[in-house]
Design a protein that fits this description.
Blueprint lengths: L1 H17 L8 E11 L4 E10 L8 E6 L8 E6 L6 E5 L11 E9 L5 E10 L13 E2 L4 E2 L18
Antiparallel strand pairs: 1-2, 2-5, 3-4, 3-6, 6-7, 8-9
Length: 164
């Protein structure tokens, strides 16, 4: 008699467990890189996301980038418009990027009401560090006029020192 009761109960539990849905994906990471702009003496994170078909219009993508210099995370948000297929996010400028150190990035997709629909945690490791950037911009204006602050008296580039 017990077997007649236990077998249907186990079957019901297995079926109920199989009905759980995986969380829906709305966005995926297409690319991530540090950009080092030597001409302007600046560096920043660049993140490219794919918008998947289930992504609602008027959603907002919020990216939190680890600050290589320490301190609070750097935050950037981008509204998702109806015709967007790709979402690009550029962080504020960063300093003290170190080669081969993984930096954390958290990406959250929120609907128009502010509810978090998806969270992606990833990292980005740079193959360069901030010491390859000059201390100041090398040129100004559209005709590449050299700046005085970007160069040493002998004409060599004045590079940044190692942080810390």
């Amino acid at each position: 008699m017990k077997a007649h009761f236990v077998i249907p109960l186990l079957a019901a539990l297995l079926l109920a467990g199989g009905c759980q849905r995986a969380p829906e994906e709305y966005i995926s990471v297409n690319g991530k890189v540090f950009i080092f702009n030597i001409r302007n003496a600046r560096a920043f994170y660049m993140l490219t996301l794919n918008r998947l078909p289930a992504t609602p219009d008027n959603a907002v993508v919020v990216a939190e980038f680890e600050n290589p210099a320490g301190g609070p995370v750097l935050v950037k948000q981008q509204k998702v418009f109806p015709k967007m297929t790709r979402i690009d996010l550029q962080s504020p400028d960063v300093d003290c990027v170190v080669t081969d150190k993984p930096y954390k990035i958290r990406i959250m997709l929120r609907n128009a009401e502010g509810e978090t629909l998806q969270t992606i945690d990833t990292t980005l490791t740079s193959t360069l560090d901030s010491t390859m950037l000059p201390e100041h911009a090398l040129f100004e204006g559209p005709v590449y006029t050299k700046t005085k602050d970007g160069y040493n008296p002998d004409g060599s580039i004045r590079f940044r020192k190692k942080c810390g």
